[in-house]
Amino acid sequence: MPSLQSHHTFSLQANCLSIVEFNSADAFISAYNQADHAYILGEGSNTLFLEDYQGTVLVNRIAGINHFDTESHHHISVGAGESWHGFVSLCMQNGWYGLENLALIPGSVGACPIQNIGAYGVEVGKFISSVEAVLLTSGEKIIIKSADCNFAYRDSIFKNELANKVLITQVNFVLPKMYSLETSYGELSKLTAPTAQQIFDAVIAIRKSKLPDPAQFGNAGSFFKNPVVTTSQFETLKSTYADIPGFGVSHDETKIPAAWLIDQAGFKGKVFNQVRCHPTQPLVLTNLGNAQGEDVVTFAKEIICEISRKFNIKLEPEVRLVGAKGVIDLV
Ligand SMILES: Cc1cc2nc3c(=O)[nH]c(=O)nc-3n(C[C@H](O)[C@H](O)[C@H](O)COP(=O)(O)OP(=O)(O)OC[C@H]3O[C@@H](n4cnc5c(N)ncnc54)[C@H](O)[C@@H]3O)c2cc1C
């Protein structure tokens, strides 16, 4: 059985029945139809294989980047198997700005719309004009316009109505030539009149200083989503925890940084067998070298239970957890 350890950034030891790389929608459909069970994989930076997967892992290698511009916009079509950071770097080299805040996020372009990747005040959905895909059942090609993607915080139609129903083959981006830089977030706000290139460089430097490098300690970035609570629940929490941070997402909803909750619950730096809650970013769980899938599950459940007990908030994983038969829920 081939190993999946190098196919996901958390690097757990797990195998599968077979691994097939494809570079076109037709090759994908042919491989998909031959498999009893199949899991679509990009770069495995949002996926943990907790145990041996009893199916075929189909790795997306659809390549190609095409650009044209109009008076006001750059239009770029990108094959879903391209590297996200490679694409952002290419945009910077060509002066196509807007994506600089999303530098150094691991993963493939095809996965970026699925959880509407975001960082430093920017979400990718804002720059996507449409997503091209094929239906798994029929192989029919479809195009989903941005307005129909239902982009939201770490969410989209691809995690809901279209979950496990499509292969994303291409993402089409539109970047305005007249752009305004997003510098409101954290350390970026300290930059004085930065250029897009300076933001790109700063984001890379900040990420390298704060986040563990998966090549050193396996991880999948943020393990949990930041919970969104009603503003009245937030006010109640604030009466007990005066320094609890919160960011309004609508007039009656507030987003609370999960890292703060996990830190307050005493997990920061804590180790369970070979899994560690990262000391400088407690939202990230890391593999100290030889972690087992069940260690990750046990530790993650302990964190969820404690946050629920202490704050009455249910943390949800941001990562995909794959067991023997496919994606599993933690709770
Ligand atoms: C160190 C680190 C930092 C990170 N920082 C951030 C961050 O700042 N912001 C953020 O939003 N995310 C972040 N992430 C998470 C991750 O980078 C993103 O979720 C990324 O988009 C995942 O891409 P991937 O190709 O690795 O996805 P995979 O893990 O390979 O797949 C993720 C899911 O998408 C499905 N999928 C993948 N490709 C396709 C396709 N072409 N068609 C249909 N389904 C598909 C898979 O089946 C799976 O369910 C981070 C991860 C790491 C390791």
TrEMBL record:
It is found in: Cytoplasm. GO terms for cellular component: cytosol. The active site is at R154, S222 (proton donor), E318. Residues 12-178 form the FAD-binding PCMH-type domain. Keywords: Cell cycle, Cell division, Cell shape, Cell wall biogenesis/degradation, Cytoplasm, FAD, Flavoprotein, NADP, Oxidoreductase, Peptidoglycan synthesis. It catalyses: UDP-N-acetyl-alpha-D-muramate + NADP(+) = UDP-N-acetyl-3-O-(1-carboxyvinyl)-alpha-D-glucosamine + NADPH + H(+). Belongs to the MurB family. This is UDP-N-acetylenolpyruvoylglucosamine reductase.
